[in-house]
Write a structure and sequence with these properties.
disordered N terminus; 306 residues; 20 strands; Thrombin, subunit H; six-stranded antiparallel barrel; mainly beta; globular; 2 helices; 9% helix
């Protein structure tokens, strides 16, 4: 196969800016893995930003409810379980790296308190070989695998079983249907700084392989969640999908997911402390309240001494 290294392209911005597509899952008929987890499962926090992109509801502290998504997605209405919540004007906070440069991540508030606890955010980077669950919203894929012969930048469809096919993958669904869908993958690269459009973000990277259930982000999937499983069986939010790597040097067709493509996601362990500074952990709230009470008591004692 003449598949020599993928080029990262910003999801939904550089390659096909008007489109928003879902996680593509290898195998089956393409209708599997609809995201419908229990309310208490963090993976149920992935929703729709605007009309079709993705974001993750982080939870509520002090009556303020927060969403995390890619900066290039932007703050917008957030739909979760069919209910639409408006973004709070001017509430967006862009995250930064340790050296002060900006990352492709923003936090913003929605206007209706849901009173859900703050989601568990992974404090350590996913290691190479670790399993992750990827969830995003958008176009479904067509049912069957397809193969392509590649001559220069011309792709010609052939049977995926054809001897010598240069690439194998899926076309996106022609009817434009979209679904929140999940799939799994393994981390192929970790702690990678990825730069584009003036942003640099610490990322993990997964690769699309011919394994049942293997997931690949697709154009427009930005803001979707990447989750790891803890030893006790619970899930933690490990990343936010940002970009995909395609065979653009060989003219990979629009609206396709090809084996060997990669997905780049922001590694939230690099931004966790900043997120929790903006959104205090629930455990810090009683401490802050306690300090306020102590302060009030000190003021009262001061007044009594006067």
């Amino acid at each position: 196969m003449r598949r020599a290294g993928c080029l990262l392209s910003l999801i939904g911005v550089l390659a096909w800016p008007a489109l928003a597509h879902a996680v593509i899952v290898y195998g089956g008929d393409g209708t599997q893995n609809v995201a419908d987890f229990a309310t208490t499962d963090p993976r149920n926090r992935v929703g729709i930003v605007g009309s079709s992109l993705s974001g993750v509801y982080l939870g509520s502290v002090g009556g303020q409810d927060w969403v995390l998504t890619a900066k290039h997605v932007g703050a917008g209405s957030f739909t979760l379980d069919g209910t639409v919540y408006s973004a709070v004007s001017d509430s967006a906070v862009q995250l930064t790296n340790a050296n002060g440069t900006v990352a492709d991540l923003i936090l913003y508030r929605i206007d209706t308190p849901l009173d859900w606890s703050i989601i568990s955010i992974s404090g350590t980077a996913s290691s190479v070989g670790a399993t992750v669950t990827m969830i995003g919203n958008g176009y479904n894929r067509q049912t069957s695998l397809v193969g392509w012969d590649i001559a220069g930048t011309t792709w010609s469809a052939v049977s995926p079983e054809a001897v010598g096919a240069d690439a194998i993958g899926y076309y996106y669904a022609a009817d434009g249907s979209r679904t929140l869908r999940w799939g799994t993958n393994t981390v192929s690269q970790a702690n990678q700084p990825v730069s584009y459009s003036g942003w640099t973000t610490t990322c993990g990277i997964t690769r699309f392989d011919a394994l049942n259930g293997d997931a690949q982000g697709a154009s427009g999937d930005s803001g979707g969640g990447v989750f790891t499983q803890n030893a006790d069986g619970t899930s933690s939010l490990a990343g936010i999908m940002l970009a995909i790597g395609t065979y653009s040097e060989y003219g990979q067709l629009a609206n396709t997911a090809v084996l060997g493509n990669v997905t780049c996601y922001a590694d939230l362990s690099a931004y966790r402390s900043q997120i929790l500074t903006t959104i205090p952990e629930p455990a810090t709230v009683p401490v802050l309240l306690g300090l306020a009470t102590l302060g009030l008591a000190a003021i009262r004692r001061w007044w009594r001494r006067r």
